[in-house]
Structure formats: structure tokens, C-alpha cells
Amino acid sequence: MSAVNRRSFVNLAAVAVVAVPAARVLSGPHGKAATERFEVTLTDAQWHAKLSPAAFEVLRREDTERAFTSPLNDEHRRGTFACAGCALPLFASTTKFDSGTGWPSFYAPLTNAIRTRNDGSLGISRTEVHCCRCSGHLGHVFDDGPRPTGLRYCMNGVAMTFAPAKA
Fold first, then answer.
1. Any alpha helices (H) in the chain, and if so which ranges?
2. Would the pTM of this model clear 0.90, i.e. be above it?
3. Longest C-alpha distance within the chain, in Å?
4. Cα separations in angstroms, 70 against 37, 63, 87
5. 9-67 pLDDT, tens per residue?
6. Catalytic site residue 131?
7. CATH superfamily, domain at 32-164
8. Which residues of 126-153 are buried (b: 16+ CB within 10 A; e: fewer)?
9. Which of 86, 132, 134, 154 is catalytic?
10. 3, 68, 120, 140: least surrounded by Cβ within 10 Å?
């Protein structure tokens, strides 16, 4: 790469570091359209009181937990994974699989549990997954999962809780 091209690349990268977060802030929380309505809506102060700091950052600010840090990644009992924000059941344990990515992964959500939307926050197009009841950010879905769906719902463990099935 020539010096001019390298300099142009560095300048472009510097602009992206500033512009991408600014664009996210200017578009509002989660970049949602103003017309979206959710059953559970709380103020930031109420979410702060309800959630752990890590869960708040993921669910309300679209952060991502570090890979391999969630205890839910190693959860293999029968049961249901629910939204940590509003307790809506999201995924059955029967759809969980080890993707090797370091985050709890599922090949299908429960019916009417999630919404998706395009997420271009990193300068690439991804599909964001959020809770359909409270709009909490859960993670992203990719098309490299196992059968029968071929999808990988790569979720932040801190955004969910787990309830074991009753015996």
C-alpha cells in the first residue's frame, strides 16, 4: 500500500470511529423508528434499577459481552431461555447448540418472541435480534447455523435468564 493510500485509509478509519457511534446516538436508542411500540417500556432510570450494569449495556445500549464469559454458554439442561429485561420466553433449550463462538447459540426462537432489523453499525450489514416485548437487544442472527433452519441466533448471555424445565 502506498503512503498516500495508507494515509487515506487511516483517515477513513478515524472518521468511522467517530461517525459510527455518532450516527447511532443521532438515530435514538437502538436506532429504532419512532413508530415502533413495545408492551414493556421503561425509562433509562427504571432499566438501570431493574438490570445489572452489564445487562443494561447489552439490552438497552446494544453492547456485546465478551465471548466465553456467560454461564449460559455452558447451560445444557432442559428449559427455557428468557429475556433478562421482561422475562419473555425466547428460546427452548432444545434449539441450543455449541457454535464454538463463545456465545449461547440457537437455531430457532420461540414463536412471536423476537423481532429483527438490519444493523449497519459496524459498517457491514448484519441482522440484529431484539425482544419483541421490551425491545431489548439480544444479539444477531447469521445464516451459518445447523439444520433444520440453517440459522445461528448468537445471543448475549447477559441479556437472558434460564429457567430449568420442571421435572
1. 3-26, 44-50, 53-61
2. no
3. 67
4. 30, 14, 18
5. 333 333 343 333 333 332 334 444 446 677 888 999 999 999 999 999 999 999 999 99
6. no
7. Peptide methionine sulfoxide reductase. (2.170.150.20)
8. bebbbbbbbbbbbbbbbeebeeeeebbb
9. 154
10. 3
